[in-house]
Amino acid sequence: MELLSALIGGLIGGVLGVVGSILSSYYGPRKFEEWKEKRMIDKYDNPRKELLQKLLGGDFKIRSIETLSRVTGTTNEECRRLLIEIKARGIKIKGNREGWVLIMNKPLNVSLENEEDDDVE
After folding, report:
1. 2-102, what's its fold?
2. Side-chain half-sphere of 52: how many Cα atoms within 13 Å?
């Protein structure tokens, strides 16, 4: 009987050890990465999106990617990602440069080829 109790106790302890290892080595780092990513979004992306909304919603409806990325402190690629998330669209502006405008200000069915640049550089 003591042998059976020892075997059952060892089996339960082994199973709990494996489950604990899986939880701490897989789910722990995964949850930490998710938490860290959410924190970065809250700390950096959301304020940048608000700033982009203000820049494109003010007096100047069209801005160059250079201005937008410089003001928000992002790379052009990161700025493009944020612009798409706030529902902006890319356009070609004077000088064959890349510009951006909010879709609500210039819907997709409106042609914007060589639109005058409202941007103040």
Report:
1. Arc Repressor Mutant, subunit A (1.10.10)
2. 31
